């Protein structure tokens, strides 16, 4: 050792002893403090109650401020709602206080119903309150009872499967052998009585082993028979019951339930803010895990999600008046009359005028309506017998209908019915006594009297002639059109929707005396859909089409643009082709201008949500996540670009106005100056691609033998919904290419 530690003297020993004591004391103190701190750190945190830890720590941004320009009682309403939301989200309320706050918010929501200026805010508020209330109800259940009900349900399913297999085997010659082999009678006994869980599980485990070893049976026919559907149904029920009866399965994992509820709520909030497909997927995932854990205990939560996030995202309402003006048709036919009525040979001419229409009928499951027919036949005939000739003017009114139902796939019809009100007026007569003084008048009077005696019978025959002529033709023409419609809709259109991944996951069809209602939902397993529309549809509107942002975004997701590079021109072409595939006809869209020197813009889409639509506050926002490349320019890395569009219908014009374009980098750049420059480049590109423009509010459509001009009277973006209204000023231009043939309306061979 280079250096030797000196031996301490006595004095030094005393000094070091004091130091040692001090060090020991300090060390002990440190240990005590550290231990105390450690104990404090490890203290169990207060148990979270109700919505604590599940709701966000702050009021959602779209609820943080009440709508502007509220006055009087509604300004006070806004302040009260803000206070309640602050308590719910940002205060540690106990369970009773949470329930009280939710109840107060529900009262405020009800109070604001029907207020147009609060409709959007109130709808957003209602979704959150309904979900929060459902979360409390889910947690407030006796979760042990929920699990017991689930086990009982699986037991009932198992008992039904055992009974079904036993009944099936009883019909077979050697079925009793299989009943004994599988111990089905013992199993039925255990399920029927208050069973011993151990004995039942032993029976089921033995049965499961027999199913698993069915391949070991030496007899080929036995193996084949053992694989029949009836056995597999029982096997499925056995496996489900055993899975439910595993140790711990009978107890709900409350911590896991709270964790998934928190994941559900947080992802719903992120989805509200961004329409992110990732958050939609995570929300659905959390809900699926909750269903696995709670199954039948999710009634309130499922109802809240159906109303706010699983609802129909495309809705159409059509008024009867609109359809009547759309399909109204009036035809007039003339022709000769050659007939034999009550022994008289009848000849002459007649003209029939016919009108068609529609009459809506109430139905909760289909679009139900009558195609209606009304008209009048005017005739001028002479009926000749050996005694006299009677000249008659006929005026026969008729009306009828044929019921049609549409369920989304198929139109079905009922036989047509026709009623006739026949009226004959005798306008003259001639007899063989004409020209004979004194007798000619007598002869005509006798002919008139005889004609009057036969009037009722003659009019009944005339009515039957009209029915026999009108009803078969009405049936034939309608059924022919229905056959074509079934081919176009049930066959071609639905096939195109399925081929493009756009066939609805849910559909609803209904009708009333005045309107048809079509509601569909485009939502895959990892997607969300719509809330209830905030707009009350007025009955006077002829046609209302409502599209939720989710149906647009879910449709865009099927285009596969993620991570692709494509020119803006080719992108428009893909949109045109996609629409053409669905509609079955060519579609032409407006294209952005192309720089003659630099060529088209190349869009480099992000792998996440390349194009999304957001609708709120009377604005439709197109959100692009992409970079740009163009000849002669420095490439712009991926940006989040928001292009807001607003709409105003004034007379026969639609004004589309672009708001301020915003651009932010996905990856934060090294210098702010670089991003400012990129944002300027992006803004110029977007302004060229989305210029302010004025469109014609009148849209032309071709419908068989006529041109139809539809007048768009309203475009309203609100709370996720884009509502288009077609007004009452429908114009129809009919053009018959070929005149209808003249037909004989009655004849005698």
Notable traits:
749 residues; alpha+beta; 8-stranded antiparallel sheet; 23 strands; 44% helix; extended; disordered N terminus; disordered C terminus
Could you give the count of β-strands? 23
Beta-strand residue percentage: 25-35%
Which regions contain 5 or more consecutive residues with pLDDT less than 50? 1-42, 737-749
Number of helices: 19
Summing up helix and strand content along with how strands pair, one would put the structural category as alpha+beta
As a whole number of angstroms, the C-alpha radius of gyration is 40 Å
What is the helix fraction of residues, given as a range? 40-55%
Described by the principal axes of the CA atoms, the overall outline is: extended
- Mean model confidence by pLDDT: 83
Main pleated sheet: 8 strands, antiparallel
Distance between the termini: 143 Å
Q: What's the topology here?
A:
Blueprint: H1 10-41, H2 73-90, H3 95-111, H4 119-139, H5 143-170, H6 175-181, H7 184-192, H8 197-212, H9 220-226, H10 229-244, H11 254-274, H12 277-294, H13 299-308, E1 314-319, H14 320-327, E2 329-341, E3 344-360, E4 367-384, E5 388-406, E6 411-413, E7 417-421, E8 424-431, H15 439-453, H16 455-499, E9 506-511, E10 515-521, E11 543-548, H17 549-557, E12 565-567, H18 568-583, E13 602-605, E14 611-616, E15 619-629, E16 636-650, E17 653-658, E18 662-665, H19 672-689, E19 693-696, E20 698-703, E21 706-718, E22 721-726, E23 731-734
Antiparallel strand pairs: 1-10, 1-11, 2-3, 3-4, 4-5, 5-6, 5-7, 5-8, 9-10, 11-22, 12-13, 13-15, 14-15, 15-16, 16-17, 16-18, 17-19, 20-21, 21-22, 21-23
């Amino acid at each position: 050792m280079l250096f030797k530690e000196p031996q301490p003297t006595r004095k030094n020993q005393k000094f070091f002893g004091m130091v040692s004591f001090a060090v020991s004391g300090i060390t002990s103190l440190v240990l005590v403090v550290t231990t105390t701190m450690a104990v404090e750190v490890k203290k169990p945190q207060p148990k979270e109650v109700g919505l604590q830890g599940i709701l966000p720590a702050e009021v959602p941004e779209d609820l943080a401020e009440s709508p502007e320009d509220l006055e009087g009682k509604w300004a006070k309403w806004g302040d009260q709602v803000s206070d309640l939301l602050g308590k719910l989200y940002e205060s540690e309320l106990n369970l009773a206080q949470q329930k009280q706050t939710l109840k107060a918010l529900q009262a405020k929501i009800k109070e604001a119903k029907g207020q147009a200026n609060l409709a959007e805010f109130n709808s957003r508020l209602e979704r959150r309150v309904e979900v929060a209330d459902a979360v409390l109800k889910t947690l407030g259940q006796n979760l042990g009872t929920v699990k017991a009900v689930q086990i009982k349900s699986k037991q009932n399913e198992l008992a039904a499967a055992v009974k079904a297999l036993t009944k099936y085997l009883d019909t077979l010659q050697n079925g009793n052998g299989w009943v004994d082999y599988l111990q089905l009678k013992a199993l039925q006994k255990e399920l029927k009585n208050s069973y011993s869980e151990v004995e039942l599980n032993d029976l089921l485990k033995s049965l499961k082993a027999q199913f698993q070893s069915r391949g070991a049976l030496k007899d080929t026919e036995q193996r084949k028979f053992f694989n029949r559907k009836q056995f597999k149904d029982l096997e499925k029920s056995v496996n489900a019951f055993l899975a439910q009866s595993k140790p711990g399965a009978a107890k709900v994992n409350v911590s896991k339930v709270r964790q998934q509820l928190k994941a559900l709520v947080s992802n719903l909030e992120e989805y509200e803010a961004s329409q992110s497909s990732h958050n939609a997927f995570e929300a659905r995932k959390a809900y699926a895990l909750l269903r696995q854990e709670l199954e039948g205990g999710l009634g309130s939560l499922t109802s809240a999600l159906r109303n706010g996030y699983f609802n129909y995202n495309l809705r159409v309402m059509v008024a009867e008046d609109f359809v009547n003006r759309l399909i109204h048709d009036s035809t007039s036919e003339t022709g000769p009359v050659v007939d034999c009525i009550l022994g008289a040979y009848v000849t002459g001419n007649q003209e029939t005028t016919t009108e068609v229409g529609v009459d809506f009928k109430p139905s909760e499951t289909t679009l139900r309506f009558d195609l209606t027919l009304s008209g009048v036949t005017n005739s001028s005939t002479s009926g000749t017998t050996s005694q006299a000739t009677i000249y008659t003017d006929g005026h026969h009114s008729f009306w009828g209908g044929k019921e049609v139902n549409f369920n989304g796939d198929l139109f079905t019809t009922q036989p047509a019915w026709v009623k006739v009100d026949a009226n004959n007026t005798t306008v003259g007569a001639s007899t063989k006594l004409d020209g004979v003084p004194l007798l000619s008048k007598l002869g005509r009077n006798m002919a008139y009297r005889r004609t009057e005696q036969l009037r009722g019978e003659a009019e009944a025959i005339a009515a039957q002639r009209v029915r026999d002529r009108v009803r078969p033709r009405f049936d034939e023409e309608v059924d022919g059109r229905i056959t074509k419609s079934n081919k176009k809709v049930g066959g071609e259109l639905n096939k195109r929707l399925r081929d493009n991944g756009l066939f609805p996951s849910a559909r609803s069809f209904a009708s009333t005396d005045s309107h048809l209602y079509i509601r569909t939902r485009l939502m895959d397993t990892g997607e969300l859909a719509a809330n209830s529309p905030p707009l009350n549809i007025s009955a006077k509107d002829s046609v209302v089409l409502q599209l939720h942002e989710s149906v647009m975004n879910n449709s865009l997701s099927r285009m596969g643009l993620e991570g692709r590079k494509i020119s803006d021109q080719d992108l428009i072409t893909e949109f045109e082709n996609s629409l053409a595939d669905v509609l079955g006809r060519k579609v032409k869209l407006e294209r952005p201008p192309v720089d003659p020197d630099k060529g088209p813009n190349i869009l480099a889409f992000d792998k996440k949500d390349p194009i999304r639509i957001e609708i709120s506050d009377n604005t439709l926002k197109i959100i692009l996540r992409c970079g740009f490349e163009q000849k002669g320019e420095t490439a712009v890395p991926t940006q989040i670009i928001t292009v807001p569009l607003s709409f105003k219908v004034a007379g026969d014009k639609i004004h589309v106005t672009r708001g301020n374009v915003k651009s932010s980098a996905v990856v934060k750049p090294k210098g702010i100056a670089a991003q400012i420059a990129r944002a300027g480049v992006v803004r110029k590109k977007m302004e060229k691609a989305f210029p302010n423009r004025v469109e014609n509010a009148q849209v032309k459509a071709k419908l068989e033998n006529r041109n139809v001009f539809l007048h768009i009277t309203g475009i309203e973006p609100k709370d996720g919904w884009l509502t288009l209204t077609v007004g009452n000023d429908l114009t129809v231009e009919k053009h018959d290419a070929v005149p209808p043939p003249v037909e004989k309306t009655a004849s005698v061979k």
